[in-house]
Amino acid sequence: MSFHEKSSWIMALSLLVSSALYFFIMVSMSGTEDLAAPNLPVLIVFTIVLTVLATVGHIIIAALKPSEAIDTVDEREQQFFAKAKSIASNVLAIGIFISLFLFIFSTSGNLLFYMVLGSLIVSQLTEEIMKIVFYRKALY
Amino acid sequence: MAAKQLPVANNVKELRESNSEMTQTELGEAVGVTRQTVAAIEQRRYAPSLETAFRIARVFNVGIEQVFEWDETFE
């Protein structure tokens, strides 16, 4: 497994753990009928947890095999990345479209915020997962 | 699930083995790709760019047609 594939695993897992934590906190802060308003301190905690997990993960994989850590992205990996980014962009566009569509009917600004944030997270997660899929079974 | 093979066949593995048992990592470093990409080329799961194909041929001091060829039996 190349360094960049390990990196994608770390990013995907870090994103999954930190966003699960974020949404768990926000759901527990919400009432039975109303969504809790976006909370800046919780968002900052989410960002810090994500950054720490990703940084520690990358330090560990770099320390385990330092020779691979300096590998540049080669032509095959560039194709994986471009294809993964393209799919993730489509996921983000669909997520934003659904968010705006729901906003028309609910007019809840809180819901719009969470839907857009969720779309960003799902899009980023899709990009990392697609990279792993392409690494596992090659592109084309 | 086995990955689909591409129509461009190659002799990279044979050339590598006949050149002092060169490893995939060594060939990758010589042409600027990862070991995984060399493995993918050998298994016909990835067709390299024209530049990389020429670089591989130059490493073995042969013409590009001696490294890569179209598989006429490919469907």
Write a structural description:
The complex is a heterodimer of chains A (140) and B (75). Chain A contains five helices and no strands. Chain A is mainly alpha-helical. Chain A has one domain. In chain A, α1 (3-29) packs antiparallel against α2. Chain A is flat, with a radius of gyration of 17 Å. Chain A starts with a helix and ends with a helix. Chain B has helices spanning 12-18, 24-31, 35-42, 50-59; strands at residues 8-10, 68-70. Chain B has a single domain (8-70), classed as lambda repressor-like DNA-binding domains (434 Repressor (Amino-terminal Domain), Orthogonal Bundle), CATH 1.10.260.40. The model of chain B has no long low-confidence stretch (mean pLDDT 89). The longest helix of chain B has 10 residues, at 50-59. Chain B contains four helices and two strands, in the order βααααβ. In chain B, α2 crosses α3 (35-42). The two termini of chain B are 19 Å apart. Helices cover 44% and strands 8% of the residues of chain B. A two-stranded antiparallel sheet of chain B has the order 1-2. Chain B has 75 residues and is mainly α. At the A-B interface, α4 of A face α3 of B.
Descriptive tags:
heterodimer; A: 140 residues; mainly alpha; 84% helix; B: 75 residues; 434 Repressor (Amino-terminal Domain); two-stranded antiparallel ribbon; 44% helix
Ordered list of secondary-structure elements with their pairings:
The complex is a heterodimer of chains A (140) and B (75).
Chain A: H1 3-29, H2 40-64, H3 66-69, H4 75-106, H5 109-137
Helix pairs in contact in A: 1-2, 1-5, 4-5
Chain B: E1 8-10, H1 12-18, H2 24-31, H3 35-42, H4 50-59, E2 68-70
Antiparallel strand pairs in B: 1-2
List low-pLDDT spans of chain B.
none
User: Radius of gyration of chain B from the CA trace?
Assistant: 12 Å
Tally of DSSP helical segments of chain B: 4
- Largest sheet report of chain A: none
Helical coverage of chain A, percent range: over 70%
